[in-house]
DNA sequence: ATAGGTAAACTGCACCGAGTAGTTTACATT
DNA sequence: AATGTAAACTACTCGGTGCAGTTTACCTAT
């Protein structure tokens, strides 16, 4: 009964996996349906039995990858804990997310296409709903609690994440830089927290 | 003599301009030499008289665009001026650079390819030499002058630019967000300076 | 439970029309 | 006559389809 995977489903998964690799390696335009089918060890016809077109297959993959991040980095404001402690946890989990293999794959696949056609980007993102990082809500709560200066929380969150991504995302995505070690991750998180609180703490 | 030169040279420039548009719109793979030639109002053969291949034409354009930014944002440390003032100027000129049409074109064209093949990215960048933002030298000087805490200057510069780019670069590049108005630019620059100095000022 | 039958899915190939980078040919302008 | 041009041409690759024949999954009748 563990063999609950019918052969058809298995093929479908093979196709999705192969397509993910193909798109990641060559981009949307560079990817070839023939090469993809060969990769999946499946007839091209079978690919088209499962997915009506290259574009639909691409969207399907993007959705699939996005779904695996529905558990957004959720940070709940807690009066009992210090700001430093809470922010540090948020920063670290964000870094972990940026580090995760599948998240980086998603960005490899999508961002290149988004640069070339921002309308595709916005359509995809609005369809996925803003997986808004909950950080700005946390900031609002902290402001209400009188612990932070009153500021535009979305803007401040953007700054906070910008500091982190400058060290732990963009260099890796664009220039193949090595991902920071756990010690470096802690430093990056710590520095982001220090800078943020130096500016906004009451 | 100049006339004959200017005529063929004019065609050459037409081709380069058309190629820049074509690559910007469709990326390297999506760009077509036929469409490009039509754009330049020039025979395809003429294109191949000037450039031996699509790839060489692409490299030529990237180089050309990169050259126009050889004048990196250069900031000289001045004891006589306040840190705020100097940093604000640096931030604003960086934002101006990020805002400039041709700089954004360059990134539109190159970053999409860089994401897909980071080895191309590193080879291009090392060929261009690190157009290192002079900011980290400024930071070193300020540290020597006893005005800033002793920190890794490159890392701190990365943080500073990360804050700015989070608001004035990535959203525009990836999500077609409107570029900040002059007032917003001042706010972004001001906030980046505030945050940086709140953290690092002695 | 097993044998048999049916419907669905898979395969491999040939094929289509469009489009690609790059080359040759034949014409027109000077 | 010489040169540079446009148009046609080569030799592909692409996404996608049609089809004949094979394999798999599953349901039923014994």
From TrEMBL, chains A, B:
<dbReference type="GO" id="GO:0000976">
    <property type="term" value="F:transcription cis-regulatory region binding"/>
</dbReference>
<dbReference type="InterPro" id="IPR009057">
    <property type="entry name" value="Homeodomain-like_sf"/>
</dbReference>
<keyword id="KW-0805">Transcription regulation</keyword>
<dbReference type="InterPro" id="IPR039536">
    <property type="entry name" value="TetR_C_Proteobacteria"/>
</dbReference>
<dbReference type="InterPro" id="IPR050109">
    <property type="entry name" value="HTH-type_TetR-like_transc_reg"/>
</dbReference>
<feature type="DNA-binding region" description="H-T-H motif">
    <location>
        <begin position="32"/>
        <end position="51"/>
    </location>
</feature>
<dbReference type="Pfam" id="PF14246">
    <property type="entry name" value="TetR_C_7"/>
</dbReference>
<dbReference type="InterPro" id="IPR001647">
    <property type="entry name" value="HTH_TetR"/>
</dbReference>
<keyword id="KW-0238">DNA-binding</keyword>
<protein>
    <recommendedName>
        <fullName>HTH tetR-type domain-containing protein</fullName>
    </recommendedName>
</protein>
<feature type="domain" description="HTH tetR-type">
    <location>
        <begin position="9"/>
        <end position="69"/>
    </location>
</feature>
<dbReference type="GO" id="GO:0003700">
    <property type="term" value="F:DNA-binding transcription factor activity"/>
</dbReference>
<dbReference type="Pfam" id="PF00440">
    <property type="entry name" value="TetR_N"/>
</dbReference>
<dbReference type="InterPro" id="IPR036271">
    <property type="entry name" value="Tet_transcr_reg_TetR-rel_C_sf"/>
</dbReference>
<dbReference type="InterPro" id="IPR023772">
    <property type="entry name" value="DNA-bd_HTH_TetR-type_CS"/>
</dbReference>
<keyword id="KW-0804">Transcription</keyword>
